[in-house]
Design brief:
The protein has 10 helices and 18 strands. The protein is of the alpha/beta class. Helix 6 runs parallel beside helix 7 and helix 7 runs parallel beside helix 10.
Length: 380
Amino acid sequence: MNRRTQKSNGKQVRSYTQPTLKLLWGRAAGRCAVPECRTNLIAEETDYDPAVPIGDIAHIEAASDDGPRANPALSVSEKNDYQNLILLCKNCHSRFDKQKNHHAVEYIRQIKRSHEDWVKASLPERGRSNTGWRVIRLKGQHPIDSRTFDAALSPDYVLGVPLEIEALAPNPWAQTADSMRVSIDNLFSSQDSYESRFAVFPLAPVTACIYLGYLLTNRPTVRLFQYHRDAQSWVWPDPTGRRTGISVEIVRDVPIPTDIAFLFELSARMDRTQLLSRLPTATRILSIAVPDPGTRWLQDPRQIQTLGMVARELFEDCINFWPSAQKWHLFYAGPAPGGVIVGQQLNPTMTPPVQLYEFSHPHHSESLRIEPTLLNAASV
């Protein structure tokens, strides 16, 4: 592979591949990456001289083992790789290296990521928008294939580094909930939740999907995506024009319920006999279902929006008509993004405690109890 080499006193000290140089200068748009600087690093041509680059290719972890932020474990090629380089003006480069305690490795990497995000937003590619989305990957036991994230968001783009949240069994659900809550709290601490945009790619247990939606609430703008296994893609299929409706049915009617149970039957029918036997007698039971439940039901993002509206209206009606209900039970059989949007409709200050359930053949088991008024969760 062709390499571009810098020399000092005739001695080779740094070597960069052509793709590395193109990525570095292209993604930085030829400007210093420091947000309060962003000076143009190309001196324009004059009547007497050609245009010349005047920027410095700076190392995040030092090029030598005795340099600022040195990491002796890195090989020479790793030190000179694009991931370890940042484009700076000479002033900012000198400041970074001489004030190495303030300008730590992760701090500089964040500056580089933020600058490249700024370039994407300021100079969108032809055919793309200038809207960036923070990506949340909700991961269960199976790895998440992120290769089609960009295509799924097109014409928008991924903003920054995706946040991965793990919900792995057999970890206690209370422990998983605590970890998820910390991740989302940290995400909101750096930005106004009402102005935030999140693209959620979930492939995790039902409980984790619902709880993530509950933590996100309806304040930020959220786009949800379904993994289509046959196509191995997160890109929504072309709309077919046929979308089945969602109906609400009363399974057990109780005039003054102590509990309310919601059965979301989108991908499969539930064993109602088994559920009825384990719920308190004074439980009002409602089924939210589609005519032909199946794993291929979700093919269009508008179906998720409809599901969210149905869930919100139903939850609001239950709060208004049966305010004395002491506990809600939420059973969900459906696609992962649907679980997220259902969780978003749970009002943190209005609903009673909500018991979530996880299905493991042949029964549902209690997983996580959400205490909305306390904004916390505990296993039962």
